Amino acid sequence: MTIAITAGEPAGIGPDLLIQLANNIALNDKVIIGDPELLEQRAQSLNIPLIIQEYKPNQLFEKRTNTLCVYPVRCKMVSQAGVLNKHNSHYVLDTIRIATEGCLSKEFSAVVTTPIHKGVINDAGIPFTGHTEYLAALCDAKLPVMMLATKGLRVALATTHLPLSEVSAAISKESLQQVIQILDHDLREQFKIDQPHILVCGLNPHAGEGGHLGYEEIEIIEPALDELRNQGMNLTGPLPADTLFTPRYLQHADAVLAMYHDQGLPVLKYVGFGKAINITLGLPIIRTSVDHGTALDLAGTGKAQTGSLEAAITLAEQLTN
After folding, report:
1. What is the crossing angle of helices 36-46 and 14-24, to 10°?
2. How many CB atoms lie within 10 A of CB 210?
3. What is the pTM of this model?
4. Distance CA 217, CA 173 (A)
5. Contact by Cβ (8 Å): 220, 121
6. Residues 231-280 pLDDT 10s
């Protein structure tokens, strides 16, 4: 089995990253799910030599640079770097679906995804909230957990792509316990941590200040953590997010659980942007991704940085092994 890599939004830097990375390391032992003509055109604009090999199951290729093994999926419309086209939205989703189904059937060992653009997919009339939720639907997984990791720090999320006004209502004792159980389980099973120590953020400033700044900690978070501690989990919290992300706490932690997207991810991206990895927990497959978006302004310029994609591929290999 081999790792599948989706080419991402055709107008973004996904194709650039694959071509640039293949220029430096042998990447043709992976399977790129995407449009070969798009990759060839982008390689020409980047002035990087590229050989396309068509993917065939169980066929082995001699590892070499400037070569991509491609499972062909055609864009509906010709794509221009930096210019979104909603007519290619189904192409984007097809690449993710094919890679995911290949993992479920054991044709592929893992999937690594490059950036997509949620807005243009919605503009095409397709209800879509993000990679994480779409993968969960394809895998029939009830509760995916989004976690980003960089050197010395892992941050998982209790909620993912929600407006801030909807976060509090989305957190219940039951949902929080499910997220923590998945996080604890995958830290043990995938990352081989025997007794994970998880720090849990409060939802409100100062973790609610004893109820003066909100009751979610008292009514939801603390009871959820107490029950899980009684089951043997090593949990600390709820802690104020503004003090949790300090060496005093982090040096003894294996992961942090933030209550919402922009509570935890700005800190992680400040520490490791460009080299961090997005991992989806709670799936029956291995999925890693880059820590950044489509960067339309960089597409076709050769200025996109490949560090996060390379790290995502390396982690997918490690988790597969």
Report:
1. 70
2. 10
3. 0.92
4. 10
5. no
6. 999 999 999 999 999 999 999 999 999 999 999 999 999 998 888 999 99
